[in-house]
Amino acid sequence: MGKAILFSAPSGCGKTTIIGELMQYFDCFDFSISATSRKPRGEERDGVDYHFLSHDEFMRRVEAGDFLEWEEVYQGTCYGTLKSEVKRIWDSGRVIVFDVDVNGGRNIKRYFGDDALSIFVMPPSIEVLEQRLRSRGTDSEEAIVKRLARSAEELKQAPLFDRTIVNDDLQRAVAETRKVIEDFLHV
Ligand code: ADP
Ligand code: 5GP
């Protein structure tokens, strides 16, 4: 088994932003491209940010046993980690980076055990989280309300992760995350 780094947090906490910075720094990283039944947002591209599937196709692949884990993260919207992604990255000898919801994070950590480092990205406050979701400018008001409604419960689960990083100042948070990962990977 190779190593994995997984990031979980409520939507809008900065996982995508932090992962983007880290991918430029760690040559050994490869991002596990999840499947989702939601539509692309902003500049997102199929096969790069996500594998965008219809709801029916997503469910067909659930039935086929293609997922290591999957969740209906928001009502009617599913996300899942494809077994084929994990195989693809490990076959290349790289470290897998996951961006998954809190339940998915716990399941993946259980599966990989000590081979995975689980990181919870915490917003400085709920108010800042709401501001960031709004300023991202990619979600409808309905989607923002759904995301915020779920965030309070998710934030309570932070202690179940190996490390918590508060994403206050981005460069500070990235530097702290880099250090935590270097310790884990012994690099
Ligand atoms: P997630 O992937 O967790 O849903 P994003 O990475 O999309 O979150 O971040 C949500 C929004 O907050 C984006 O517009 C991003 O540019 C912004 N953002 C992320 N981290 C910070 C930070 N430390 N300070 C200010 N804005 C941030
Ligand atoms: P978004 O729609 O903002 O890209 O993602 C919404 C939530 O779904 C985030 O918390 C994100 O981490 C989570 N997510 C993305 N991919 C997966 C996955 O493969 N499995 C699980 N369980 N959650 C995922």
Describe this structure in words.
- The chain is of the alpha/beta class.
- The chain has one domain: P-loop containing nucleotide triphosphate hydrolases (Rossmann fold), CATH 3.40.50.300.
- The chain is 44% helix and 22% strand.
- The protein has seven helices and nine strands; from the N terminus they run E-H-E-E-E-H-E-E-H-E-H-E-H-H-E-H.
- The strands form two sheets. A five-stranded parallel sheet has the order 2-7-1-8-9, with helices on both faces. A four-stranded mixed sheet has the order 4-3-6-5, with helices on both faces.
- A hairpin with a 2-residue loop joins strand 5 and strand 6.
- Helix 5 packs antiparallel against helix 6.
- The longest helix has 16 residues.
- The model has no long low-confidence stretch (mean pLDDT 96).
- Bound molecules: adenosine-5'-diphosphate and guanosine-5'-monophosphate.
- The site of adenosine-5'-diphosphate has 15 residues, from helix 1, helix 5 and helix 7.
Furnish the topology, listing elements before pairings.
Layout: E1 4-8, H1 15-25, E2 29-31, E3 35-36, E4 51-52, H2 55-63, E5 67-74, E6 77-82, H3 83-91, E7 95-99, H4 102-112, E8 116-122, H5 126-136, H6 141-155, E9 163-166, H7 170-185
Parallel strand pairs: 1-7, 1-8, 2-7, 3-4, 8-9
Antiparallel strand pairs: 3-6, 5-6
Bound molecules: adenosine-5'-diphosphate and guanosine-5'-monophosphate (5GP).
Concise structural overview:
This protein is an alpha/beta fold and 187 residues long.
Give me the count of strands: 9
SSE topology string: EHEEEHEEHEHEHHEH
Q: What is the gyration radius calculated from CA atoms?
A: 16 Å
Q: How many domain units?
A: 1
Q: How much of the polypeptide forms β-strand, as a percent range?
A: 15-25%
Cross-sheet strand order for the largest sheet? 2-7-1-8-9
User: So what's the CATH class?
Assistant: Alpha Beta
The largest pleated sheet is described as:
5 strands, parallel
Q: Which ranges are low-confidence, i.e. pLDDT below 50, for 5 or more consecutive residues?
A: none
Number of helical runs?
7
- Mean of the pLDDT scores? 96
| Reported CATH architecture | 3-Layer(aba) Sandwich
Class by alpha and beta content: alpha/beta
Write out the distinct hetero groups bound to the structure. adenosine-5'-diphosphate, guanosine-5'-monophosphate
Provide the helix percentage: 40-55%
Kindly report the name of the CATH homologous superfamily: P-loop containing nucleotide triphosphate hydrolases
Rounded to the nearest angstrom, the distance between the terminal CA atoms is 18 Å
Cα shape: globular
CATH topology: Rossmann fold
